[in-house]
Amino acid sequence: MTVVGAALVPGMPHLLAAEPAPSWKLLADAARQAGRDLRAAGPDAFVVLSTQWFTVLGHQFQVDPNPRGHHVDENWYAYDYGTLDYDLRVDVELAEAWACQAEDMGFQARRTRYDGFPVDTGTVVAGKLVDPDRSRPIALVSCNLYAAAGDLGRIAEAAALAAGKLGRRVAFVAVSGLSSGLIQRWIEPAEDRFEDAGHDAWNRRVLDLLAAGRTDEVLALREEYAREAQADSQLRALAFLAGSGACDRPARVLEYGPVWGTGAAVVTWLDG
Amino acid sequence: MSRVFHVTVGDRRRPPQTAPAPAGVPVAELGPGGGDERGPGIVAGFLAPHPPHLIYAENPPQNEPRSRGGWELLRWAYQEARRRLRERHRPDVIVVHAPHWITMVGHHVNCVPNPRGLSVEPIFPHLLRYRYDFRTDVELATAIADCAADAGLVTRKLTNPGVRVDYATIGALHLLNPDWDIPVVSLSANNNPYFYSDADLEQMERLGAATRRAVEQTGRRAVLAGSNSLSHLHWDREPDLPEDMAAEHPYDDHQYRWDMDLLTLVRAGRTRELRAFLPRHIEATAAEVKAGSLSWLLSALGWPEIPGDVLGYGTIIGTGNAVIEWDPASPARPHPAPPGWAPGPDDADRPRPMTGARS
């Protein structure tokens, strides 16, 4: 089996806070658990999409073998978790094969390899939680917000096809929140909560459907969810994960809670 | 890579006005050299779109990628804006509001004295890898943040020099002043347009009024730059050669006509109507002015009932972009709309979107 599993994890840096809110800590622990579960399934590499690397023209594939640097988040810079060092291991062979496969399927695939390229907060945060020892290389693609959501499913399909041709076993990780309505003031961690009960209700509805294995129903609700709860990037992350073929079973919701008022969840799709 | 120029902040400071002139009232006298002899205050505002294609096409030494040009009409419009900035407005400071310093909580003001670094743009890394090095007018930046907080806005002063400066800030400032020899204050966009949240234009208007108060308190002579495009649906892929102008045209006729109606209001000086029209334009075209830069700019100017001077309009990957100057001291000649004209095209014949944009 080429695709060994998939996970949805949050990308907010609060999960790395030295003094986290209770929900931040639970979510971080759950993301670490999701990483352990995915690694136990034996992937050779992780295939990653982060909604915080959003683009608008074509689909960008990271082909720098070792992006590394010091990232200061433009919103959370005043907090300990706003400054992140990163040192990524990219599976360039897989990324190149993925880009070629995407081109064969009619997509515009743009290779990204530039000194000083700013890796996004979500990719860095997820990497530190899901695979803190960098035991597996990763292949990264951007989240094109102007392409149809279904295109991202096809991009994931391209990754699975490319991995199969290379004989790689891969696990898919989408880094995304759920509802994205932030609390619009500076708060202490202990004050974090959902201020919009409607957003909370929508998130729970979506997670319940995923846990019941009704992924297609969630995809059908995606635009309504986006309108009603400001779903992060219109929940393109789920379209991506579904395209991998890994979401054809009930999901396991490891944790759900607020991060500065937004909805965040750790969800896995694995055998057994 | 060449370095950009520096000047010392505040060396051309003027004493505060005792009584600021009402917005929209021509008060200036042109000096013998054509320069505006007004004292401190906001002397002009520019709508200054920032797509990185414009810097890319200019081939400045600060930017690593090279091009064969392109988008000349917009770049020539900026040429004229630069001439007016330098010869007529002669500001102490340029204050820019930019939609790609996206802050999810609060209105942030860059208070780092000397931001410098390499800005590789994550969306357009093939077009913009720009080495920036400029001076912030920290006193004014601090005053704007304080006035905004006094007005009830959530604010934050950025003092961490590690935050990468975004391409909308760099784009507008470079195109208005490629020598970077005028100090700067840069403001974030407190919204998250790519996450389906709508900008709160009322907050942007309060931020504009706070900016005006801060400029007056500190005695600066300021030019404001709202770094926004107009209609904002665009292609989701680009030609192999980004500057292939054969591929450049409006995203669709619907977007173009809404942009023309907005510009008709601007050219006629019907600013109050423009204020009411902006939300409709945003709704119809996903206009980037939803990030609030234009509302901030015109609010700071007091929504003057004077014509804006449309120096140029053009599309970039299908989006609408206009370089516009509002000069309360020397307003542009009005261009009245045709009799019976009303803003807001008939949408009955609106074409369907050509991609899944924003769905």
Give the helix proportion of chain A (percent range): 25-40%
What's the average pLDDT of chain B? Answer: 87
Q: Are there runs of chain A of 5+ residues with pLDDT below 50, and where? A: none
* Biggest β-sheet strands, sense, barrel of chain B: 6 strands, mixed
Alpha carbon gap, first and last residue of chain B: 41 Å
Shape of chain B: globular
Strand order of the largest sheet of chain B: 7-2-8-1-10-9
Question: Biggest interface and which pair forms it?
Answer: A-B, 50 and 40 residues
**Alpha-beta content class of chain A:** alpha/beta
**Count of individual beta strands of chain B:** 10
H/E element string of chain A? EHEEEEHEHEHEHHHEE
What coarse outline of chain A follows from CA principal-axis ratios? Answer: globular
Put simply, the count of helices of chain A is 7
Major sheet summary line of chain A: 6 strands, mixed
Helical content of chain B stands at 25-40%
N-end to C-end Cα span of chain A: 15 Å
Q: Could you tell me the strand content of chain A as a percent range? A: 15-25%
> What is the string of helix and strand elements of chain B?
EHHEEEEHEHEHEHHHEE
Could you tell me the mean pLDDT of chain A? Answer: 97
Give a quick rundown of the structure.
Chain A has 272 residues and is of the alpha/beta class. Chain A contains 7 helices and 10 strands. In chain A, α2 crosses α4 (149-166), α4 packs parallel to α7 and α5 runs antiparallel to α6.
How would you sum up this structure, described in words?
The complex is a heterodimer of chains A (272) and B (359). In chain A, 36% of the residues lie in helices and 24% in strands. Chain A is α/β, with parallel strands linked by helices and 272 residues long. A 6-stranded mixed sheet of chain A has the order 7-2-8-1-10-9, sandwiched between helices. Chain A has a two-stranded parallel sheet with strand order 3-6. Chain A has a two-stranded antiparallel ribbon with strand order 4-5. Chain A is globular, with a radius of gyration of 17 Å. In chain B, the strands form 3 sheets. Chain B has a 6-stranded mixed sheet with strand order 7-2-8-1-10-9, sandwiched between helices. A two-stranded parallel sheet of chain B has the order 3-6. In chain B, helix 3 (138-150) crosses helix 5, helix 5 (201-218) crosses helix 8 (293-300) and helix 6 (253-268) packs antiparallel against helix 7. The longest helix of chain B has 18 residues, at 72-89. Chain B is globular, with a radius of gyration of 19 Å. Chain B starts with 40 loop residues before the first strand and ends in a 33-residue tail after the last strand. Residues 1-29 and 351-359 of chain B have low confidence and may be disordered. The chains are: A alpha/beta (272), B alpha/beta (359). The A-B interface holds A 53-58, 60, 70, 72-75, 77-78, 82-83, 108, 110, 112, 114-118, 120, 142, 144-151, 180-186, 223, 226-227, 230-234, 260 and B 101-106, 108, 118, 120, 122-126, 129, 154, 156, 158, 160, 162-164, 166, 188, 192, 194-197, 234-238, 317, 355-359.
